[in-house]
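As noted in the main text, all predictions were made from sequence alone. Below is one such record, for Tagatose-6-phosphate kinase.
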Amino acid sequence: MIYTLTLNPSIDYIMKLDSFNDGATNRSYEDKKFPGGKGIMVSKLLKNLGENPINLGFIGGFTGDFIIESLRKLHIKEEFTRIKGQSRINVKLKYDAETEINAGGPNISESEINSFLEKIRNINSDGILIISGSIPQSLGSDFYKKVLETNKLDFTIDIAGWELLDYLNYKPLLVKPNIDELEDIFGTKIDENNIIIYAKKLQELGAKNVIVSLGKDGSIFVSDEMILKAKPIDGKLVNSVGAGDSMVGGFVYGIKNGLSKKQAYRLAVASGTATAFSEDIASKEYIYKILEKVEVNEYGN
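Prediction:
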């Protein structure tokens, strides 16, 4: 079973505008609301591929009701821990650029935390836990460590910045920084001349597999067995939200269903690319259409 962890789920309120003027009244010509949070994005991708993931985390208030109802409509399972506080709303403005305003999240009580950790404790040892996204301020910045110390599961973790280093000794199945995040982690400029050195450092420090997104230049994959690079695929960027989460979901789906690491990486690339070219998380049909275009070679070839 695959579990996705969204400690700080949200309603993602997307507003499209012809233009944006700071300090003035702006009117959208279209708006949409989606259940948000990186773990939820991964779950949507996994569901589209045919998996039945279970969402874990904290949820509350009328915003939480909307998130749960939205997941039910998508036939996605959830075992969220109910809280007294309100789940957050994140506003995404789309015009000739993209601007995001993300809320901090609700306060969570000690009893609510204990109830959540009990659910983590009861996950079978053969489960895979996908950890991603922000932590509500009331939980403290090291809360993911409490999760990992509660149950020694296979897991992936997708968090920004140098804090990722604190989790490598837990031996994650996958980490997926982009090149800017890799620079933040190691505090140095990274380019094609040293990117493998620093991607390998993540692997040497404990990550079993590493994907580094290079934006328009594709991505690389590093494990103890191989170093691969995927060429970028031509297409129109429609929505960057969820593309990285889709890469994680595609890789985990592939590994769980018996694909080789190379083939799981190809599926990860196809999943991330297809979502980037879609309004929402990509459909299975579109992912496999993109998969036909994915070209992966040994790094340097």
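The CA atoms of residues 237 and 277 lie 5 Å apart. The radius of gyration is 19 Å. These features were considered when defining construct boundaries for the mutagenesis experiments described in Section 2.9.
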